[in-house]
Design a protein that fits this description.
This protein is an alpha/beta fold. The protein has a single domain, classed as Alpha-Beta Barrel (TIM Barrel). It contains 10 helices and 10 strands. An 8-stranded parallel beta sheet has the order 3-4-5-6-7-8-9-10. A two-stranded antiparallel ribbon has the order 1-2. Helix 1 packs parallel to helix 2, helix 3 crosses helix 4 and helix 7 crosses helix 8. The chain is globular. InterPro entries: AKR, AKR5G, Aldo/ket_reductase_CS, NAD(P)_OxRdtase_dom_sf, NADP_OxRdtase_dom. One of its GO terms (molecular function) is oxidoreductase activity, acting on the CH-OH group of donors, NAD or NADP as acceptor. Belongs to the aldo/keto reductase family. Keywords: NADP, Oxidoreductase. This is Aldo/keto reductase.
């Protein structure tokens, strides 16, 4: 495995298993961040209209001289942009900011009650029209997915959720696996809130790695697409240096045991929509 290793979505599109998240990185900083990540070999960039940095992401990709089709780019429709017509318009705004002809993966950012089904119909249209290569959701729990698929023509290809050792989301992961929906982890390092955990440190010392690298390796080995955020080139390099060691089954289980169902972000059912 390496930074260019991919997994296949259920429609046949390949997505790199490791990428760069750019949550709320300011415009100029995001340009530098994406530029350095691409230089290190990253080929998967995850942004969103809510992050207010799509222009910087698009410019960095354009200026990199790497062919557009060699880079996988995700963006998302925000809560106040949802609804059928609103989503189609929001997508065009994102496309214009990115200065792309298409987006690789377009996600519904949160399951806005009473809106996400209409939003999904818009995503299906964008997919059928060839403006996006794949469509999916973010922060959807099994009951949201069940509800969505009652009326959907196309099943989501990915579900991006908060996922890290203190929040392993086993039920949602199992549901997605059963329905061939790939799981992506946002905030895979738990915002570095518990890197002093003794289990993580014991495993890190054994492999001569950092606790952060152990967490990212755990994600990758657990078949979770992971997109750690970093604006620092050295940290980006360190984050990506997780393909030269392997956790044992026992170590994976030990990391699983850190789970306390603790969220950093909001619960999808209690979000102030």
């Amino acid at each position: 495995m390496s930074l260019t290793t991919t997994t296949t979505l259920h429609n046949g599109v390949e997505i790199p298993v490791f990428g760069l998240g750019v949550y709320k990185i300011p415009e100029q900083e995001v340009y530098d961040s994406v530029t350095s990540a691409l230089a290190l070999g990253y080929r998967h960039i995850d942004t969103a209209s809510f992050y207010e940095n799509e222009e910087g992401v698009g410019k960095a990709i354009k200026d990199s001289d790497i062919p557009r089709n060699d880079i996988f780019v995700t963006t998302k429709v925000w809560n106040d942009e949802q609804g059928y017509d609103e989503t189609l318009q929001a997508f065009e705004r994102s496309l214009k900011r990115l200065e792309f002809d298409y987006v690789d993966l377009y996600l519904i950012h949160w399951p806005v009650p009473g809106k996400y089904k209409e939003t999904w119909k818009a995503l299906e249209k964008l997919y059928k029209d060839g403006k996006v290569r794949a469509i999916g959701v973010s922060n959807f729990l099994p009951h949201h997915l069940e509800s969505l698929m009652e009326d959907a023509e196309i099943k989501p290809m990915a579900n991006q959720i908060e996922l890290h050792p203190q929040l392993t989301q086993v039920e949602t992961r199992n549901y997605c696996k059963q329905h061939n929906i790939k799981v992506e982890a946002w905030s895979p390092l738990g915002r570095a809130n518990y890197l002093d955990d003794p289990i993580l440190n014991e495993i890190a010392n054994k492999h001569n790695k950092t606790p952060a690298q152990v967490i990212l390796r755990w994600n990758v080995q657990s078949e979770i697409i992971t997109i750690p955020k970093s604006v620092n080139t050295l940290r980006q390099k360190e984050n990506a240096d997780v393909f030269d060691f392997e956790l044992t089954n026992e170590e994976v289980q030990k990391i699983d045991s850190i789970n306390i169902n603790k969220r950093i972000g909001q619960h999808p059912d209690h979000f102030k929509y």
